[in-house]
Design goal:
The complex is a heterodimer. Chain A is mainly alpha-helical. Chain A is built from 12 helices and no strands. Chain A has a single domain, classed as MetI-like fold (Orthogonal Bundle). By secondary structure, chain B is mainly alpha-helical. The chains are: A mainly alpha, B mainly alpha. At the A-B interface, helix 6, helix 9 and helix 11 of A face helix 1, helix 6, helix 7, helix 8 and helix 10 of B.
């Protein structure tokens, strides 16, 4: 949720990175700790998510009626819920849903935001003005309202949630892309491309995109976090993924009723989500530290 | 500055108009029609047609929109379909209750958040800085409603200190009323505290590294004077904007948190309306929340203009 308003620091950062053809990324003596920790967490997460069906001790929807509300232990690592379903297995399957939502939403937002931002930054003038005003208006809507409206009038599904969040994230991506593009425009490689008379398509895809990419990776990490958290809020409110899916937000919401009797039903998915978010955030922060020479000098 | 303010106000009006159109069209795309909902399962095609004619639902869409908008602007928000009561009084009551939550949370964020950021910025790289940064990571790691749940578990289920849900009655005394507010307000502040303290920290750090601070120190001013009188006012400029923006963000948080604490505010009213597909209530709640969000953003821009002379004098804002 928070990430939606952190667009401005990222923007400031993006304008500060002098990326051009001739300057390689600044070499730092040591890799930032945040990057190492973040990358490890994200790697572990991706591996467990990919192997969730194999690693999970039980099928995520198998009910053990005699073991309802079993506390965490050797048999059920994170306990069982009100139907006797293994919470740990559900957590693993849930990680697939969360990551899928985060990645799809981010891909959608980048699919919309990056071309618009590059076009705006490259062409300046009227096109720039028009694109930026539309993005401004999109950003002026309260984020959750738009998503709730979309999800309330249609049958909720993972793809719709991802689509709604993706649209919501497109304007900030567009703005970052534009400001980086503006910085790159003065680069010699751009001048060379223009002097060679390359077509717009070539300049944008082959010259600009590879240089915009590193900064976008940082922004993308923020967007994945935003999507995971907002997705959880939406399922919690009942407008996201529907039961019996093993979605983290949904699990927290279901466990609310038993929070005194069996707190692990709600607490476990929250811890999993926290680890995911912290891992991705650390990865993003670490990347930023590597990519932003100004920050490196200051510390 | 005045023309800037007027231009921004114009933008807000455009956004509200667009949102009203979106809300109107979206609610018309819903499977449930107003007439069918009022008549329930015993409707016949004839009664449906008659009621649709009476409610003006057989008019062309643009005329319906115009009628609806005109009524809204006159403060007539229609009748709730589920509760069969006028929407406006319900909405304003809920709005007031949400506003109390939001204002309390904002007050805490503005004071505690800034203080935390200053402490972290001044003792950069030392333990207060690390403590604030761990707090900030915890604050943004999970959605606010999760912390709400944890707080309920700790303070209500385990220690039985505070009520876990609902709203207090002022006639039972201020203490009891406040006790219902404590947990929702704390939950609302956690994420924002993380945000504001991180931002204040970095802008404080930036100011402390600047030339004028070095000069002030070289002049032999005591460190607390340097921090409070010299660095802090400049460090506050970005924080002020973010505080105002966060107010808009608070509105999103309030929807989930009112649900967790069963607090009868605007957010919960909206969720109720969406779940029961109560069209008039839904429209009114969404439009009110959008208006508050836009006005908060407007306030943020104006405050930024006041705090930052470059914008006041027509410089580029990029």
């Amino acid at each position: 949720m928070l990430i939606c308003c952190t667009a401005s620091p990222t923007r400031a950062f993006a304008t500060a990175v002098p990326l051009s053809d001739s300057t390689a990324l600044p070499r730092r003596a040591s890799v930032p700790t945040a990057l190492i920790v973040g990358a490890s967490i994200v790697t572990i997460l991706l591996v467990t998510a990919a192997l969730a069906q194999v690693v999970a001790p039980y099928p995520f929807d198998q009910m053990h009626i005699r073991d309802r509300f079993a506390p965490p232990g050797l048999r059920y690592l994170a306990g069982t819920d009100e139907y006797g379903r293994d919470v740990f297995s559900r957590l693993l399957i849930g990680s697939q849903l969360s990551l899928l939502l985060g990645v799809i939403a981010t891909l959608i937002s980048m699919g919309i935001g990056v071309p618009l931002g590059m076009l705006a930054g490259y062409s300046r003038g009227l096109i720039d003005e028009a694109i930026m005003r539309v993005l401004d208006i999109m950003m002026a809507f309260p984020p959750i309202m738009l998503v709730l409206l979309i999800l309330a009038i249609t049958q909720p599904s993972l793809m719709k949630t991802a689509f709604a969040i993706g649209i919501l994230s497109a304007p900030p991506i567009g703005r970052v892309t534009r400001s980086v593009t503006l910085d790159l425009m003065s680069g010699e490689f751009m001048e060379a491309a223009r002097a060679r008379g390359e077509r717009l398509h070539y300049v944008l895809c082959r010259e600009l995109l590879p240089n915009v990419w590193p900064v976008l990776m940082v922004e993308a990490s923020l967007r994945v976090v935003f999507a995971v958290l907002l997705g959880a809020v939406l399922s919690f409110l009942g407008f996201g993924v529907q039961p019996p899916a093993a979605d983290w937000g949904l699990m927290i919401s279901n466990g609310r009723a038993f929070v005194e009797k069996a707190p692990w039903i709600s607490l476990a998915p929250g811890i999993a989500m926290g680890l995911t978010v912290i891992g991705i955030s650390l990865l993003g922060d670490g990347l930023r530290e590597v990519l932003d020479p100004r920050l490196g000098r200051r510390q | 500055m005045a023309s800037y303010a007027l231009r921004r106000l114009g933008t807000v009006l455009v956004i509200l108009a667009v949102m009203s159109l979106l809300v109107f069209l979206a609610t018309h795309a819903l499977p449930a029609s107003t007439a069918a909902m009022i008549l329930g399962q015993y409707s016949t095609p004839e009664t449906l047609a008659a009621l649709e004619h009476k409610l003006g639902l057989d008019l062309p869409l643009w005329l319906q929109y115009w009628n609806w908008l005109r009524a809204m602007l006159h403060g007539d928000m229609g009748q709730s379909l589920v509760m069969e009561r006028p929407v406006a009084p319900m909405l304003w009551d809920a709005f007031g209750r949400s506003a109390i939550l939001a204002l309390c949370a904002m007050a805490i964020v503005a004071t505690v958040g800034v203080a935390m950021g200053v402490v972290a910025g001044v003792w950069r790289g030392r333990w207060p800085d690390h403590a604030v940064s761990i707090f900030a990571y915890l604050g943004i790691a999970v959605p606010e409603f999760y912390w709400g749940l944890v707080l309920i578990l700790v303070f209500c289920s385990t220690f039985h200190l505070l009520p876990s849900s609902g709203i207090g009655n002022l006639s039972d005394g201020v203490g009891s009323y406040v006790s219902y507010l404590i947990l929702p307000v704390i939950t609302l502040t956690l994420t924002l505290l993380a945000h504001v303290s991180r931002l204040t920290r970095s802008s404080m750090a930036e100011q402390l590294d600047s030339m004028y601070v070095k000069v002030a120190r070289a002049r032999g001013l005591p460190e607390h004077v340097v921090i409070v009188r010299h660095a802090l006012p400049n460090a506050m400029v970005p924080t002020i904007t973010v505080l105002a923006q966060d107010f808009g963000f608070l509105i999103g948080g309030i929807v989930a948190i009112e649900t967790v604490f069963a607090y009868p505010g605007l957010g919960r009213l909206l969720i109720f309306a969406l779940q029961r597909q109560d069209l008039p209530l839904m429209q009114a709640a969404i439009l009110t929340l959008t208006a508050v969000f836009c006005l908060a953003n407007l306030g943020a821009d104006l405050l930024y203009g006041i705090a930052n002379p470059r914008i006041r004098h027509g410089g580029a804002v990029e």
